Amino acid sequence: MHYVATKICRASEIGLNGNLFGGTMLSWLDESGAAFAGYLCRTPNMVTLKMDEVLFRRPVKISHHVRIYARVDKVGKTSLAINVEARRFDFDKELEELVCSTRMVYVKIDAQGQAIPIEDRLRATMDQSMNDLTQRT
Ligand SMILES: CC(C)(COP(=O)(O)OP(=O)(O)OC[C@H]1O[C@@H](n2cnc3c(N)ncnc32)[C@H](O)[C@@H]1OP(=O)(O)O)[C@@H](O)C(=O)NCCC(=O)NCCS
Question: What residues flank ligand 1, with Cβ below 6 Å?
Fold first, then answer.
């Protein structure tokens, strides 16, 4: 998968049970997926159409570093499906642990907000991304 961003969990982002608020995690995943999709499509004009099942597998606590990775799952005419993972970094063990994952669909739009085709010349890079996996725990 491709590294996209690192987020650091702040005290203001903690919910009632002492864990990162789920909505904040969703926002991180959406923003990172959009950044990745926009980069691949060479446009800032990508909108989120869909978020699939989201699994919160491990808690994130204050000061945890969360690394977000993305990978192309499917390239359509106007849309791009992206698998997104958030991984907690354990500084002592120097390893990443999966905390949350989902699949998002983004659509390329024009100035009027209508779906428009992704350029053919960019598809090779996206195909390459589909086969690119990295290790995690
Ligand atoms: C995204 C948006 C422009 C799509 O408009 P639309 O009229 O549905 O466009 P289309 O019917 O041409 O579909 C666009 C793409 O979405 C795909 N799509 C539509 N419904 C889908 C679904 N349920 N699941 C997966 N893909 C879907 C279509 O297959 C098409 O992809 P393709 O061209 O690669 O085959 C429109 O729905 C929109 O503006 N949504 C709001 C986006 C937004 O504000 N997001 C922020 C989060 S609130």
Answer: 47-50, 76-79, 105, 107, 109, 113, 115
